[in-house]
């Protein structure tokens, strides 16, 4: 363990992972409560187009992912006005746009760098500049969430009532789209595009099983997120596998363990009641 932490790339990876484990559930809890989990998945794939555009223009791929994913998030919000009853159709449109862009650029042979590490996640590719980008995006996102906290809770539980109450729902939804893009951009290096949405949704899904209030559920989501990402990072290092995929497996395993743990007390109490009759 000590020898592993002596490597600068592991130190960089741990630094980024800490911010991922805090930011993703903060964004994810609002997506899950609004039943928008698939938007996170669509925007995760949209980030691949941003990465390829960044690499194509010789810019930082994380910045490219953030900018393009922000545009896609705002496009989803814009299209909601035209497809109010067909959210899945909006996601298909944005998914087709982003994946089509990514495949076209990758297949053109004009990329000077390999985009594969962004698909699966790699602890070796986190640079100092990436760390600065992660720090800035995470700080701005968390501060924005704190500032809009009460309005976003109102919108998450009842968007129509929030509009009647005078909450600027449209504007906040656009801002939230950018926050989702930021969470995705900071997570790409470690987690990878293909399983990024699991980091946004699964810790929240695990915390929801405990049936607590909103604030405690958010805190538990962060705790589960830290457990998932850190275990995935350290164990994947020793197994020599991509951290993104293994972290997703850890997330599913933790969710299953929590579900089983909830079943055990109810099973014991049922057995006691039946034996007492």
TrEMBL record:
Q: Does the keyword Transport apply?
A: yes
User: Where is this protein localized, as stated in its record?
Assistant: Cell membrane; Membrane
The record's section on CDD domains has: TM_ABC_iron-siderophores_like
Q: Which UniProt keywords apply?
A: Membrane, Transmembrane, Transmembrane helix, Transport
- Which family does the similarity line name? Belongs to the ABC-3 integral membrane protein family.
Q: Record the organism.
A: Acetonema longum DSM 6540
- GO terms classed as biological process: response to zinc ion; transmembrane transport
Q: State the GO CC annotations.
A: ATP-binding cassette (ABC) transporter complex
- Residue ranges spanning the membrane: these are 12-33, 89-111, 131-150, 171-188, 218-239, 245-261
Question: One Pfam match, by short name?
Answer: ABC-3
* Lineage, uppermost ranks: Bacteria, Bacillati, Bacillota, Negativicutes, Acetonemataceae
In terms of SUPFAM superfamilies, this protein maps to: ABC transporter involved in vitamin B12 uptake, BtuC
Q: Which InterPro entries match?
A: ABC_BtuC-like, ABC_TroCD
Q: What is this protein called?
A: ABC-3 protein
Give the membrane topology. Multi-pass membrane protein
């Amino acid at each position: 363990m000590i020898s592993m932490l002596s490597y600068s790339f592991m130190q960089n990876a741990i630094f980024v992972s800490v911010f991922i484990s805090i930011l993703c559930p903060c964004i994810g809890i609002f997506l899950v409560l609004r039943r928008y989990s698939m938007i996170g998945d669509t925007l995760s794939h949209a980030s691949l187009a941003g990465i390829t555009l960044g690499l194509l223009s010789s810019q930082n791929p994380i910045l490219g992912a953030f900018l393009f994913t922000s545009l896609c998030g705002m496009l989803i919000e814009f299209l909601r006005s035209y497809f109010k009853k067909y959210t899945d159709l909006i996601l298909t449109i944005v998914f087709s746009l982003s994946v089509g862009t990514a495949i076209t650029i990758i297949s053109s042979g004009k990329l000077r760098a390999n985009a594969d590490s962004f698909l699966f996640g790699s602890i070796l590719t986190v640079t100092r500049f990436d760390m600065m980008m992660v720090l800035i995006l995470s700080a701005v996102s968390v501060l924005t969430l704190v500032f809009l906290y009460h309005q976003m809770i109102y919108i998450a539980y009842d968007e129509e009532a929030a509009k009647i109450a005078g909450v600027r729902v449209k504007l906040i939804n656009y801002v939230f789209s950018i926050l989702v893009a930021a969470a995705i951009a900071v997570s790409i290096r470690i987690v990878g595009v293909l399983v990024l949405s699991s980091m946004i949704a699964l810790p929240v899904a695990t915390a929801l099983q405990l049936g607590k209030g909103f604030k405690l559920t958010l805190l538990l989501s962060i705790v589960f997120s830290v457990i998932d990402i850190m275990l995935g990072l350290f164990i994947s290092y020793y197994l020599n596998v991509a951290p993104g995929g293994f972290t997703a497996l850890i997330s599913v395993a933790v969710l299953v363990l929590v579900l089983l743990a909830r079943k055990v007390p109810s099973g014991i109490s049922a057995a006691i009641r039946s034996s007492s009759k």
